[in-house]
Amino acid sequence: MTAELIVDGRIPQTPALAPDGRTVCYVLTPASRSGAHLDTELWLVGDDGSRRLTEGTATESQPHWSPDGATLFFLSDRSDRGTPQLQRCTPTDGVVSTLTSWPAGIADHLPLADSTTAVLLAEDAVVRDPVVVGEDEPAARIRLLDLRSGHLSTPDVFAGRHVTEVRQRPDGGPLAVLTQARADQDCGPCTVHLHLFDPKTGAVGDLGPVEPDAHALTWWLAPDGWHLGYLALTPPLLQAGLAVFDLALSTGLRTNRTAGFSRCPVELQETDGAPLVLFAEGLRTTVARLDPTGPTTLVEHPGLLSGLSVSGAQLAVVAGTRYEGANVHIGPIGGPLRRVTDTRPELRDVTFGQQRPLSHRGADGLELDGLLVLPTGKRAAEGPFPTVVAPHGGPYGRYADNCQLFWYPSAQWLAAGGYAVFLPNPRGGQGHGHEFAACVAGRVGQEEWTDILTGVDRLVAEGIADPDRLGIAGWSHGGFLAEWAVGHTGRFRAALAGAGVADWGMLAATGENGRFESALGGSTGWSGIGPHPHDALSPVSYASRIRTPMLLLHGADDTNVPLGQSDYFHRALQHFGVEHEYVIYPGEGHSIRERGHQLDVLRRTRAWFDRWLG
């Protein structure tokens, strides 16, 4: 196991099945980038084997097949790095032609059933200086590309609203269109409307407002007529995960089809009949058909599934196992699925730490799950081991029972260094339904933290975790929990917080998802005269108690959790004389992408825990 092995890996993403269901195109994406841009590849897998379609010298994404399957459309910045344009490729000869030269680039595309038109989403090419907030912000608009003449037109529809998604009715009828008032990450998703648009006649219909962050439009025909489905945030709480909504166009009745479920929908996919839903269900993932009486489970996978694509009676999906990286699998709806790629053969020569599911109960008896990864080459009976607790991000994330090998402080990387790693799934996360996720609203760091501690206590009691050599490491919300931990207990000998949240009020004011963050923290700085509820939930409020050595890591250009969060915590630690290191990665956002920076994160992580846990 080497750091280079991790960052030089390649990951298959967004498989797209051809209309005949026999060929799949997917994007092969490197785990890291070496220059200013990410170089991806398009691959085809069919009856005649696997072949690379593009050379990997550009960022290429979003493959979509023409309705007849003869042509593949995708986005690429091969002509001007950083500015994607629409490409057309005939897979039989591999010839690629560039169809657009839009100055602002193309954000999304959809070939229509008439085979002569493609719908594009693209911003106006206008540079404003100065920028008047709310007036000069970019907005994606619908463009219609005539594939015969190359003519590009912009219908005057939706009154300047930002278009986020388009999906044509399967019979070649109108387009379902999602728009929001602004492209702003914070307030925009809370102003979503659903429309119908006929590109032939220009007719527009407004179906009214829908739930925040609506996406994954899906059509299906039922006995009462056409239905439109989509995923959206579960009302009224923005941080409580996704639900599947069903709009019957004949009556206007909108229904939450996943209300009360103990599993969480993460993807919605159109079929020839009832749609398919990808569910996070504890540590596993399932594919289910959304029948009128409820979901019918078709595929069960013990780990993580993603990128569901359906054509006719076939489906494609990205899946992995505990000790194998993600690969594309295809097969009939209902299974079995077969692996058709081998993107990380080098992992077959690697010895992994033993990974096993872990179940325990919270202090109030709530059933919880997670993963335990033992040090490489060790059995549980050989403990106790130095142990690192690694909370996931989100908080609406989860650990599935898949290969835990990533650029951030991941379990198999730490296991290779001699550590046991506890990967908890506390309440607030994905995989156990709406109520499980919603209970952290205004209570971050409360029950979710005691959920983690009860898991640690179990591992100590079983002789796996050494109580005198405990560490904690996390990124994003996991970074928040690491900072929270050291202000509430002295039992951890070392901590690592990557892009952690130090102050919820400041994050609500400066992060790109302010409403979401204020729901988690319970208030904002403008919620009257303080102290505010979020003060009691912010790690920086407890800095005077901290004695644990800390490593802070952050991307300089992070807009999700801005750098100011770690600046704030660093100054507090400095004020109270807490031993710590603070590392800033120039040019990086919320996730670290540059190869050298990823290597530094991995090596610095192990060195930090080696220093303090022995």
Produce the secondary structure layout.
Blueprint: H1 3-7, E1 10-17, E2 24-30, E3 41-46, E4 49-52, E5 60-65, E6 72-76, E7 85-90, E8 95-98, E9 106-111, E10 117-123, E11 140-146, E12 152-153, E13 162-168, E14 175-180, E15 193-197, E16 204-209, E17 215-222, E18 225-233, E19 242-248, E20 254-256, E21 264-269, E22 276-281, E23 284-291, E24 294-301, E25 305-311, E26 314-321, E27 324-332, E28 338-339, E29 355-361, E30 367-373, E31 385-389, H2 411-416, E32 420-425, H3 434-438, H4 447-461, E33 465-475, H5 477-486, E34 494-498, H6 504-510, H7 514-521, E35 550-555, H8 564-575, E36 580-585, H9 595-613
Parallel strand pairs: 31-32, 31-33, 33-34, 34-35, 35-36
Antiparallel strand pairs: 1-2, 2-3, 3-4, 5-6, 6-7, 7-8, 9-10, 10-11, 11-12, 13-14, 14-15, 15-16, 17-18, 18-19, 19-20, 21-22, 22-23, 23-24, 25-26, 26-27, 27-28, 29-30, 30-32
Question: Could you characterize what this model shows?
Answer:
By secondary structure, the chain is mainly β. The chain has a domain at 351-613: Rossmann fold (3-Layer(aba) Sandwich), CATH 3.40.50.1820. Helices cover 14% and strands 37% of the residues. The protein contains 9 helices and 36 strands. The strands form 8 sheets. Strands 29-30-32-31-33-34-35-36 form an 8-stranded mixed β-sheet, sandwiched between helices. Helix 2 (411-416) links the parallel strand 31 and strand 32 (420-425). The chain is globular and about 70 Å long. The mean pLDDT is 95.
